[in-house]
Amino acid sequence: MNFKKLSKVLVGVTAAIFLLSGCGAAKNTASNGTGTKAKPDTFIYGIGGDPGNSVNVITTSDRFGLMEIKALYSPLYMYNADKIVYFLAENMTQSADKLTYTAKLRKDVKWSDGAKFTADDVVFTYNEMLKEKNAGWAYSQLIFNGKPVKLEKVDDYTVNFILPEVSAPGIELLANIFIMPKHIYEGETNFENSEKNAKPVGTGPYKLAEYKAGQYVKMVKNDDYFLGAPKINNVIFRVIPDANTAKLSLQKGEINALVVQSSDLKDLIKGDNLTPYTYDEGRIAYMVLNSNSSKLKDTNVRQAIFYALNRTDLINAAFGSEEYAKKAYTFLPNENKFHTDNVEKYEFNQSKAKELLAKAGVSGLKLKLGYSGSDVPSQKEAAIIEQNLKAVGIDVELAGGESAAISQQMKNEKSNYDMFLNGYIMGIDPDTFNSLFISNSQYNYSHYKDKEIDDLFNAGRVETDKGKRVEIYNKIQNKLQGNAYFYPILENKRIVVMSSNLTGVKEASLVPVYTFEDMSKLYFK
Amino acid sequence: MAKYILKRILQAIPLLLIISIICFTLIQLAPYNAIDAMTTPKMPQETVELIKAKYGFDKPIYMQYFLWLKGILSGHFGYSIVTHESISNDLIARIPATIVLVLPAYIISIVISIILGLTAGANKNKMVDKIIDGFCSIGIAIPSFWFAMIMIFIFGYKFAILPILGMNTIGVDGSFTDFLLHFIMPCSVLIIAFLPELIRYVRSSTISQITEGYVMVQTAFGSSKREILFKHVSKNVLLPIITKAGMALPMLVTGAMITETVFGWPGVGPYFINAVRGLDYPVIMAILILSSSLVIIGNLLSDIIYCLIDPRIKEME
To answer: Which end of chain A is more exposed for a tag (fewer CB within 10 A), N or C?
Structure first.
């Protein structure tokens, strides 16, 4: 083959492609110009990962999957921050012996394929969740002391939940489970990989229109939605793996909403076309000391470390200002009903720290701090901790790593780390926090076994008198601060930046994990 | 010839087995597994154990390997542990996107690099050569994610002439111009990434060819420099390019990981990177097996093509 000819052809083709695309570009900007004037009918939310094509109410437990679930399905009710919002249930009442909850269901709900929603669907969903082999996300929270909750269909629109024993957080443990249609999923043995997941039939505000692997999930409004048809026709969750690209496309208007870090706001909020929204997720960032470290056996040393740390510096470095993160003094988030401020707070006090170190007779201490190296706030917190402790004469070795590897080290009783930085989002009832502190839990990262704490948590779980419960959890908070293994640093907010022409955010209500409690309330100005 | 090809393919099988064993072992050496990467303190211990047992993590490592191998041999890659999706479906959805991006970028790079490489080689140490060589040095030094961000900032945001995200505007799937608009930026980034190495390759083989006797003969016959370069030298320079192109075959799957991630291009790159982060071993293994098979196939193909087009090698057999 004549190379010269070939190369000529190829050059020609390349030139043609570039020319063609040039023309295309001109056309596109023109259509963009007119497009922004018309009222948009599509809400595009940028997300960092792919929710996949197999979301189902039993096994899906990742953030993006749950966001999609929230749009496609409805739960009986949502339990967040001391407020119950009813969806498929009209109300939930507790019997006098506190063992039976009765859910009255709405009668006006239709599945997106037209079938009627009844108590059978509720009983079916909870029973599938209770099958061990399905490995459902809520399986273990529906098991009370080894015995499962029992479901009883009273009539087509009434369901009884019968608990085997009294449980103070019962109403929370039964909440946030999305209901799936019995007539579709009956007989399904493999929920995780079921082909039915690709064609979901739900009761949520939106219906799945199209899923493109690695690109987006497109949903169209469900006109039959029982709380009123959504105001925006289409919702798209757009997968954007790179955070910087995502920010630029938000600025440009290719997407309408994105979760960002507080440090990004300065760049993003320049004009008035973007608006930041902050909301509490109840996430506590903390530092935990490893009780198996020989250097940290002395309470004085541990307290000295805590006194040497400056929460204000930590907040300013990691989240910019107290607008985006509050100081935390106990393991419970500040909004929690059971939270108390009446504890040892370890407010910043360098001289006291030095005094305590001298009292313990320790000098030249060198500690290894583990944290997730890819998490920006953690990196900054670690740097401040290093500085703070240096000031009282303690050297810190910063050992950032892959987050999953670090959490393995945290679970490992024999790890050679002295301290870890991490954060958690637990439930609302204080009992949901017990796995972080009771003796034999693998999530008790201090590995410190305190019988008294165990007993208090066990007592709190079955105590039904509100006043006595408050007392129990006050004691736990005090005891944990006194033990000085767990140092709560801050409680940070989540920040979502959205196009300013998007309204109804307050009515849609921002909630942890799902972002919107009811997306049907959003609309464009 | 057929016998030779068959022999080569048979030789590839133990190689693939060894590769899979090494990859599997390396994944197992990581201090955590896919389930650990998913657990949160909200998940009770029993749930975690339940999920681990479901994916065979409670069995010894060699058993896990055989289970995986059994799956591959019966023709399916299995399911992702993290997303529960069928891996074959995921790959079928993503590989075409990667090919559509990498293949044109690579072909354009080869064409440009042949032209620039020949020119630079023929004018060794002259101004043109220095400019082209300087461009190569800069090109090698520029990280592609950085260059991609700069492109996005300038063309996608400041001038807003090109879309930033993905492969298509949502809703206008069929439009070719729409695709091209999305294609220009990632493709240019890839070309800039591929070019320097290829240009240098062509340049150095041009330099060695130009000292050959046949060039002197042609000069003596009074051929113009241009004629010698593009008619005679280029043919000889193109031969090793075939080897290069053959070895580039796996790039059709894994050739644009970073670029794809930055542009949100729905190819194999972001998928693979996510899987590595979550230690989703069935996905990692599937992609590694695929790309190592392509290395072997690519080598085989370039050997065969070599035989077909170079009479000297054919005679040697």
So the answer is: N
